[in-house]
Amino acid sequence: MIPSRTLSGVLTGIFVGMATELGEWNPETEAEILELLPFEPRRLPHAELVEELATTALAYVKTGECSAFASVALVAGVSYYGEAVAHRDELRRTAVGG
Predict the structure, then answer these.
(1) 16 forms bridges with which residues in the sheet?
(2) Which residues are CB-neighbours of 85 under 8 A, at least 6 positions away?
């Protein structure tokens, strides 16, 4: 079960992406997610969603959800995005020794 107060509290000004496969593989979870959203999410094939977002993500939240294709991408735009990406990249370089 998705905590609706938590989800609805963070959705203002956020892009939401969902895998197109979710409806076929997991219609109950898709319906639950759609019920919580005040707008239609952007839908991409799972591989494209992961590829597009994984290269720019600053953080990942693991929920423990094990249902097929139940990942939801929440993306918030901020004025300091470029600075945050540069900081993330520097942390990664430092962590792997340069």
Answers:
(1) 74
(2) 56, 58
